[in-house]
Design goal:
Layout: H1 2-15, H2 36-52, E1 57-63, H3 71-91, E2 96-103, E3 107-114, H4 130-140, E4 144-149, E5 155-162, H5 166-169
Parallel strand pairs: 1-2
Antiparallel strand pairs: 2-3, 3-5, 4-5
Helix pairs in contact: 1-3, 1-4, 2-3, 3-4
Length: 179
């Protein structure tokens, strides 16, 4: 999983030139670069798989208009949700997890919340790289990761990623393709 997130930055550079409808992931038939509708389906499958594996009760809410999620974000959203959900299921000891995916005019937002054991974000052990890789990917995209957690109080992680990287928006030479 960590390797997939670290590879996303490289793949995003070429994604705009690829037709994501023809790319199929070899694992479980999930789209490698899903469009908005397929991202929702892929996350729903992820939730169902987690439940079937004895994981917590997961509620998934989405507010992603069909075919409006920019292609350059398609490769980033699923592995971020996957890693955050895996962390909540594996470490929180919570019976319930909430996963939300939404977008507005200029960004996509991912929220994963549990009511479990919580943790001190500054004290994450160095060999635990999943959250660190997410933070690096989101920062590279010009977004933010907000981790709200403390022992005994659960965890809420909110990721916001702009549709256009800040460096692209400020670079008149970069071609911005219409969404």
């Amino acid at each position: 999983m960590v390797d997939r997130i670290s590879d996303v930055m490289e793949r995003e550079k070429n994604l705009a030139e690829c037709d994501s409808r023809h790319r199929v992931c070899q694992q479980g038939g999930r789209p490698a670069q899903p469009n908005a509708a397929n991202i929702v389906v892929a996350i729903e499958r992820l939730v169902a798989d987690s439940r079937a594996g004895g994981g917590p009760e997961i509620e998934f809410y989405d507010d992603v208009p069909i075919d409006e999620l920019p292609s350059e974000l398609q490769a980033a959203v699923f592995p971020i949700v996957q890693e955050l959900l895996l962390n909540a299921s594996r470490h929180s000891k919570s019976r319930n997890v909430l996963v939300g995916l939404g977008q507005d005019d200029d960004r996509v937002c991912i929220q994963v919340q549990d009511w479990g054991v919580g943790f001190v974000p500054e004290m994450v052990q160095p060999h635990k790289r999943g959250l660190k890789k997410i933070q690096q990917l989101v920062q590279w995209r010009g977004g933010t990761v907000n981790v709200d957690s403390r022992p005994g109080a659960g965890t809420c992680i909110v990721v916001e990623i702009p549709f256009v990287r800040e460096t692209e928006a400020n670079d008149p030479a970069s071609e911005q393709k219409p969404r």
